[in-house]
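User: Predict the full complex structure for these chains.
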Amino acid sequence: AQSVDQPDAHVTLSEGASLELRCSYSYSAAPYLFWYVQYPGQSLQFLLKYITGDTVVKGTKGFEAEFRKSNSSFNLKKSPAHWSDSAKYFCALENTGANTGKLTFGHGTILRVHP
Amino acid sequence: GPKVLQIPSHQIIDMGQMVTLNCDPVSNHLYFYWYKQILGQQMEFLVNFYNGKVMEKSKLFKDQFSVERPDGSYFTLKIQPTALEDSAVYFCASSLEHNSDYTFGSGTRLLVI
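Assistant: Here is the predicted structure of the two-chain assembly.
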């Protein structure tokens, strides 16, 4: 069975710093990987995805993520961070084998960026 | 961008009663999903739906749960009867196809008392 781990429940940094949110996964085949962001009281918003090809994927709002098969990671990055990036971020994996659109989510990381 | 609307945003219901959660997906999307998030836990897949049929359901999708989308109207999740452990936030999502961008709603916060 697949799983997604976001080891940091909270990340706090100052505006202008570089941010990196960690995500690791466990899956027997080649994964499809996603990052979503959730602002308070709002729905999950798609940031980016990795399906195949270039291991560095760029998404919306200036974010990018790097797929590293060697250590099963898909960390989200942005530099510089802005106070408006404060939100909860979810990493997710899609089961490529069954082709049913079933996403497995991590617990999420709450990011606080101080002005 | 296009949105998924969920109605109602909050619902409080007595244990044993029936509840219907409504989802208005993105208009041209073909695949529909329900996820459940218990407070403090991660979001978990419940079911997906395509062409009028359930394609896959998880072990969380109990016999008391059902989904339908009659005549292109709301995509609904019905729980009958409800139990205390059904209290959670239920998220609806839709997509044009698999492995594409999934659009999520804001969730319905269900409290069973």
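The CA atoms of residues 69 and 75 of chain B lie 4 Å apart.
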